[in-house]
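To illustrate the input format used throughout this study, we show a single complete record. The first block contains the structure-token representation of the backbone; no residue identities are included at this stage. The design step must infer an amino acid for every position from geometry alone.
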């Protein structure tokens, strides 16, 4: 019996097609890249040779890399890919990035992974001109990986203390202060706060000191904004219950179960995201607590779903579309030379906030 042997078959190259068709390498290349300058008879002969040898054409990656530009942007996150489609804020941001890319004909590559090893590989292998680092809070690894690629990048956050990081964001302290001031001016003195995560994967009651040590700057800064403004109205913030959520229905409902089980019920809820606020509206409705007659609530983000909720949600609106547009421009036009930018927020008053009950 003849012994079995194994050998790797060398992939068919353009030079092989040129040889089989009896043409130069340059002519074979033009058949695929610039067919209009090649005679029809020669084109057909080269294509026939390519089909017979199973050659689909030159690898576009090589041509793009030689050109030095691929006309595509990588949007990098440490979250699962489903985050881009499930999270209300992420969906709006991705829509604005997509619209800005459509206007220039650029493509988008979503770069994500469930663990740091996969994320590193995906960022290193992504065929893009630069990165928009999305949801970078508490994850400086994303910035470091983007830097290692030596491509321009811009972060849609201001969590890093590194002033060399180009970033676009909002003043969370100022925005949270607007929400707290609005409710305090309506006469509310009994508050509760539903926070964004302090650390990954945990929810439950927390103290102000614990929030101050949060891994995520938005959580820290929004609480500072709330409490700084409430203190101006003479409210003892040490008595304000704070419940950490993971920005989902389960943790928000658990938080409200906890807050309303106490002897002192809040008349105003400060929610650190619109998603938290919308889940809270559902809980309040289920428990026959009228909004805003019994309890007022203010969110943070300005996602479209807030305008359609029952009642429509008062919120601190971020300029999400402008943030996405500027991030795309930074990669495609400014080649990452953008400096840090703080964009203004607006308080959008709707029907979820009203005067404090007598």
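Output of the design step:
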């Amino acid at each position: 019996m003849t012994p079995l042997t194994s050998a790797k078959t060398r992939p068919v190259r353009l030079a092989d097609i040129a040889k089989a068709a009896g043409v130069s390498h340059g002519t074979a290349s033009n058949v695929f890249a610039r067919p209009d300058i090649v005679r029809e008879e020669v084109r057909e002969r080269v294509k026939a040779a390519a089909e017979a040898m199973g050659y689909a054409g030159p690898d576009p990656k090589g041509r793009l890399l030689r050109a030095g530009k691929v006309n595509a942007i990588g949007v990098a996150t440490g979250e699962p890919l489903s985050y881009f489609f499930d999270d209300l804020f992420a969906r709006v941001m991705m829509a604005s990035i997509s619209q800005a890319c459509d206007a220039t004909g650029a493509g988008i590559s979503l770069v994500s992974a469930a663990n740091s090893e996969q994320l590193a590989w995906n960022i290193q292998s992504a065929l893009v001109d630069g990165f928009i680092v999305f949801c970078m809070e508490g994850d400086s690894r994303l910035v470091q990986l983007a830097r290692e690629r030596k491509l321009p990048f811009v972060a849609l956050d201001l969590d890093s203390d590194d002033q060399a990081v180009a970033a676009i964001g909002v003043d969370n302290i100022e925005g949270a202060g607007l929400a707290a001031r609005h409710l305090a001016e309506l006469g509310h003195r009994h508050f509760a706060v539903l926070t964004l995560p302090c650390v990954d994967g945990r929810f439950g009651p927390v103290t102000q000191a614990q929030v101050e040590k949060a891994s995520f700057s938005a959580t820290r800064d929004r609480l500072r904004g709330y409490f700084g403004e409430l203190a101006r109205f003479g409210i003892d913030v040490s008595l304000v219950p704070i419940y950490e959520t993971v920005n989902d229905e389960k943790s928000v409902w658990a938080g409200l179960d906890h807050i309303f089980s106490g002897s002192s019920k809040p008349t105003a809820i400060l929610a650190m995201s619109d998603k938290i606020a919308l889940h809270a509206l559902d809980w309040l409705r289920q428990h026959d607590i009228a909004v805003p007659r019994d309890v007022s609530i203010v969110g943070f983000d300005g996602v479209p779903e807030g305008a359609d909720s029952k009642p429509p949600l008062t919120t601190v609106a971020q300029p999400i579309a402008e943030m996405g547009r500027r991030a795309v421009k930074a990669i495609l036009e400014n080649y990452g030379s953008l400096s840090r930018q703080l964009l203004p927020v607006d308080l959008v008053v709707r029907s979820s906030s009203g005067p404090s009950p007598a």
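Structural context for interpreting the output: The mean pLDDT is 86. The chain has three domains: 11-44, 68-169, 172-318.
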